[in-house]
Amino acid sequence: MLTLLTKMTVEDYNRAVDAYADNLYRFVLKNLRDAHMSEDVVQDVFEKLWVKLESVSALKVKTYLFTAAYHTMIDYIRKEKRYQGEELSEMEEPSHNGHYSDLGEVLEEAVKRLPEDQRSVLMLRDYEGYSYREIAGITGLSETQVKVYIYRARIFLKQYIGSLERVI
Question: What is 89-124 written as a DSSP string?
Answer without folding.
Answer: PPPPPS---S--SSHHHHHHHHHHTS-HHHHHHHII
